[in-house]
Specification:
The complex is a heterotrimer of chains A (500), B (327) and C (89).
Chain A (H helix, E strand, L loop, with lengths): L7 H8 L12 H4 L24 H24 L12 H28 L3 H31 L6 H5 L6 H12 L2 H30 L3 H31 L3 H30 L7 H20 L10 H7 L3 H11 L13 H10 L4 H17 L34 E5 L2 E5 L2 H9 L1 H4 L5 H6 L8 H8 L15 H10 L3
Antiparallel strand pairs in A: 1-2
Chain B lengths: L17 H7 L6 H6 L44 H24 L8 H11 L2 H18 L3 H28 L5 H12 L1 H14 L4 H30 L5 H29 L1 H30 L3 H15 L4
Helix pairs in contact in B: 3-10, 4-7, 5-6, 5-8, 5-9, 6-7, 6-10, 7-8, 8-11, 9-10, 9-11, 9-12, 10-11, 11-12
Chain C lengths: L2 E7 L2 H13 L4 E5 L2 E7 L1 E5 H8 L8 H4 E5 L1 E4 L3 E5 L3
Antiparallel strand pairs in C: 1-3, 1-5, 2-3, 4-7, 6-7
Helix pairs in contact in C: 1-2
Classes of the chains: A mainly alpha (500), B mainly alpha (327), C alpha+beta (89).
The complex binds fe (ii) ion (2 copies) and zinc ion.
The site of one fe (ii) ion (FE2) has 5 residues of chain A, from helix 4 and helix 5.
GO molecular function (chain A): monooxygenase activity
Keywords (chain A): Monooxygenase, Oxidoreductase
Protein name (chain A): YHS domain-containing protein
Chain lengths: 500, 327, 89
């Protein structure tokens, strides 16, 4: 019998899409109980378009090939002590932020997509989520393996998962993903599948990983780009989800728009950390944060929203403000960490003169006017042996949990400050965006585990900050924190390189 | 300029991550250890899930099984993602060449119409069971606790999707890619009396709340019985009827069953060793689901293989239960 | 007009794919960056199996593209013959 040849679409439909059946013995809703409470209306799951029709056998085959290549590089990196080839020991601090702040998000993505991969009523969408779930597990595990060798030679990477659950600035990324996972399954998809994956992860992985290559870190660039190869599938899933929700029912449009507004704002706040990694923590620079933002957010995001306009979706709220902030956020963030460097799990420093010049050139409208004078002052103080640390603990925004250090965009010397009163309690915010998110769902955000509040309430040991750092955060005080100058990291580096 | 590096100056500061060191001491760790232990967040969650506000996002209370350390569930295969996909890629390579060989030589033509109908009636509908198993393992992945067990459940869930697809391909090989065999098999699944007990049981697992119970019902009770009935006894029957070549197409499942029962047996042993309460609970779950499964599978087993078949399968299941220290 | 784009890891295999893309998309711009190659075009970009096979001199499955892919932008349509990226205006 001559079998007819199946094209990939038909093959995928036959192999996968028809696995579902209509229940006869149990209530289908009891098996998929979370589909309705968000108000999203799905009339027909079969209209779901599979973005990539990857069957499991193909998945195993291609992913195994990626893994073989990746681990061959990890092995070579460790055998040849590849850490000696990086541009500068300061670079490794970006990896510390990455492992403690980003890798645990990959883990939460694995969990979140497992949840939607179990809960969605349509088999096509479910399977796509499951594949993303296992990919995200891949990402956290390959990152842990990539950093494993660095951990043997540098401080601050060793207790990444313990730190992620406790350290003050790490509650920014943690709460972002907790927020998405605590939401319903459709909001999770808009938050992570669409907003985060489609627009924001590009900013993290593409220019930053290119930067890793430029700083001689073959292990990181390899895992970064290898992870990104899965990301293309994730981005496409995110876009398909949005189109699917918008096409299913017109009542979904305002709900989706509200989520887009929320998650783009929350995402831009989260990326503040990446902005400072790009502008300050990569000794060899590929592009400025502002340039990366223009390519991956403004240009790519702009094209995306133009495409979605046919459904009645508009650009995320506060896009105009976000456009102005790209000139400021990296400088404000690095300043916060420089001044709180005694309480950070990585090293901080004053940019070199060359780097200050680069920043002046890349940010002609803001750097010399607002930020360079601070660094010049810090330099003077350091020269006098008075490298300073701010002793006070910062006040945090209840929503994004970043210390209140952002400024008004029409007056960049004025700290931006908003508040809301809910049930007689006062809550503080860094911006209108964060305040609006709180006001929309106060019952959710009053639960925020705000690290500074928790310290004051005595829930993190103490009484001194140093006790908290040592006992609750499990930092090696004096090795993991403080300035790069005089750190054990720096000393070891000098010894390896034979400089005094 | 060349720099000479004295090896003595390149002594590592530490051998592994601090969490791994706390568990196993300061010595070089395996990739499995670094990629598994303590990965999942356990403290300071920010918000209760809207979809289950009485529990935390990660919460050990989603099962009645109690463990002091959920990382006691070490996977004997030591699968982390990379090890897992590479292992499965090897298996799929063999499977792929088997399927290609079968198709190229058109081995289906040696199978009689009667046996072909049997395969569509008894083997191909199992794709829906595999799909159920996919969901049940995803359930444990999503609501279980600790990376050691949740990652293994995820791998298992993806395996089940893969096997659902392999079973579908068997249908397509038999029907010349028309999809008719899959339609017939689904009709069996939906309507034939022999399948209704199993379908009802599958639906019941999908509405059961305790993820550990779901895992036991699916990965121990149902899988043990079906594996024996289908991949041993039915396979033997196909051999006797001259359809031994089908064995090329189910080799993946045979190998897979060996691999995964090693993991599942270790899980049970660990849970039992933890406490008498766990053992009692597991005994109770297993008894309940064993009873339900035996009832559900009886008509199918009898039609497919004859009166004695189910008893044989139950005997093997009971041996595994006893070996885990449950009875 | 909006730009669709695709970025590939800078390695030997990608070089053939990039050549194929250049052949099939006269308007595309190729940008070399550290460790990656980015290709962008107005509204439409296609990667065709046949052309890649010609360049590589071997069979090539469109799904193999994912091994070297870093990122992409645009609505994706993938089948056995091609992968295209488009924006609707
Ligand atoms: Fe990821
Ligand atoms: Fe992703
Ligand atoms: Zn805020």
């Amino acid at each position: 019998m001559a079998a007819k040849k199946l094209n990939i679409k038909d093959k995928y439909r036959l192999l996968t899409r028809d696995l579902d059946w209509e229940f006869s013995y149990q209530d289908h809703k009891k098996a998929f109980p979370f589909e309705e409470f968000e108000g999203i209306k799905i009339t027909d799951w079969s209209k779901w378009e599979d973005p990539f029709r990857l069957t499991m056998d193909a998945y195993w085959k291609y992913q195994a090939e990626k893994e073989r290549k990746l681990y061959a590089i990890f092995d070579a990196f460790a055998q040849n002590n590849g850490q000696l080839n990086i541009s500068d020991p300061r670079y490794v601090n970006a990896l510390k932020v990455f492992l403690t702040g980003v890798s645990p998000l990959e883990y939460q993505a694995f969990q979140g997509f497992a949840h939607t991969g179990r809960q969605f009523g349509g088999v096509g969408a479910r399977v796509a989520c499951q594949m993303q779930s296992i990919d995200e597990l891949r990402h956290v595990q390959t990152q842990v393996h990539a950093m494993s060798h660095y951990n043997k030679f540098f401080d601050g990477l060793q207790d990444w998962s313990h730190m992620h659950d406790r350290v003050w600035y790490l509650s920014v990324p943690k709460s972002f993903f907790n927020d998405a996972r605590a939401a319903g399954p459709f909001e999770f998809m808009v938050a992570i599948g669409f907003s985060f994956e489609y627009v924001l992860t590009n900013l993290l992985f593409v220019p930053f990983m290119s930067g890793a290559a430029y700083n001689g870190d073959m292990a990181t660039v390899t895992f970064g780009f290898s992870a990104q190869s899965d990301e293309a599938r994730h981005m496409t899933l995110g876009l398909e989800v949005i189109k699917f929700l918008l096409e299913q029912h017109e009542d979904n449009v305002p709900i989706v728009q509200k989520w887009i507004d929320k998650w783009f704002w929350r995402g831009t706040r989260l990326l503040t950390i990446v902005s400072m990694m790009m502008d300050y923590m990569l000794p060899n620079k590929v592009m400025s944060w502002k340039e990366a933002w223009e390519v991956y957010f403004e240009e790519a995001g702009g094209a995306l929203f133009k495409d979605l306009a046919r459904y009645g979706i508009r650009m995320p709220k506060h896009a105009d403000l976000i456009a102005k902030e790209k000139e400021h956020v990296s400088h404000q963030a690095w300043w916060i960490f420089y001044t709180h460097g005694h309480a950070a799990g990585f090293h901080t420093w004053i940019p070199t003169d060359e780097e200050l010049d680069w920043l002046s050139e890349k940010y002609p409208d803001t750097f010399d006017k607002y930020y360079r004078p601070r660094w010049e002052l810090a330099k003077e103080m350091e020269a006098k042996g008075e490298r300073f640390y701010t002793k006070a603990l910062p006040q945090l925004c209840t929503t994004c949990q970043i210390p209140m250090g952002f400024t008004e965009m029409d007056n960049p010397t004025q700290i931006s400050y908003r508040e809301s009163i809910y049930k007689d309690e006062r809550y503080h915010f860094c911006s209108d965006g964060c305040k609006e998110i709180f006001d929309e769902e106060p019952e959710k955000y009053v639960q925020s585990w705000l690290p500074v509040h928790q310290i004051f309430q005595g829930n993190c040991g103490g009484p001194d900050v140093e006790d908290v750092l040592r006992d609750y955060y499990r930092m090696n005080v004096g090795a993991d924190n403080l300035d790069i100058k005089g750190s054990p990291d720096e000393e070891r580096w000098k010894k390896w390189k034979g400089v005094a | 300029m060349s720099i000479e590096i004295k090896t003595a100056t390149l002594e590592p500061v530490r051998n592994t991550y601090a969490n791994v060191e706390r568990r196993f001491g300061d010595k070089p760790a395996t990739r499995y250890q670094e990629a598994t232990y303590d990965l999942q967040s356990e403290a300071n969650f920010h918000y209760r899930p809207l979809w289950q506000p009485d529990l935390e996002l990660n919460d050990p209370r989603r099962t009645a099984i109690v463990m002091q350390d959920w990382y006691a569930f070490k996977d004997p295969r030591q699968f982390y993602y990379g090890a897992y996909v590479q292992q499965r890629a090897k298996m799929q390579e063999v499977a792929e060449s088997n399927y290609a060989f079968f198709e190229k030589r058109d081995l289906a033509r040696f199978i009689s119409d009667e046996v072909r109908a049997d395969i569509i009636r008894y083997l191909v509908p199992l794709r829906h069971v595999e799909h159920t198993a996919n969901l049940n393992n995803m359930y444990g992945t999503a609501y279980g606790f600790g990376t050691a067990i949740t990652q293994a459940l995820l791998f298992n869930g993806m395996d089940r999707l893969g096997m659902a697809q392999y079973l579908s391909r068997i249908g397509l090989i038999l029907d010349g890619n028309s999809g008719d065999a899959l339609v017939d098999a689904k009709q069996q699944w939906m309507e034939a009396d022999i399948w209704q007990g199993l379908r009802a049981l599958c639906e019941e697992t999908l509405v059961t709340e305790d993820w550990f119970e779901v895992m036991v019902a699916q990965n121990l009770v149902l899988d043990a019985l079906l594996t024996d009935l289908v991949y041993r006894q039915f396979d033997n029957k196909l051999n006797e009827q001259g359809a031994q070549d089908i064995g090329m197409l189910t080799e993946f499942m045979q190998l897979w069953n060996k691999d995964t029962s090693r993991w599942m047996d270790a899980v049970l042993k660990t849970a039992v060793a933890e406490s008498d309460e766990n053992r009692a609970l597991l005994a109770q779950w297993i008894e309940t689901w064993r009873g339900k499964a035996a009832e559900a599978l009886a008509p199918l087993a009898e039609a497919m293989l004859g009166a004695e078949a189910l008893a044989e399968a139950l005997e093997l299941l009971d041996k595994r239960i006893a070996k885990a220290g449950i009875k | 007009m909006s730009k669709v784009y695709i970025a590939l890891q800078d390695n030997d295999e990608s070089r053939y794919i990039v050549e194929a893309i250049e052949d099939d998309n006269a308007e595309a711009t190729v940008i070399h960056m550290p460790a990656m190659i980015r290709i962008e075009a107005e509204n439409f970009l296609t990667v065709r199996r046949e052309t890649v096979e010609e360049k590589m001199g071997r069979d090539w499955d469109v799904q193999e593209l994912h091994i070297n892919l870093i990122t992409l932008g645009g609505n994706v349509d993938e089948d056995d013959e091609q992968l295209t990226l488009t924006w609707n205006e």
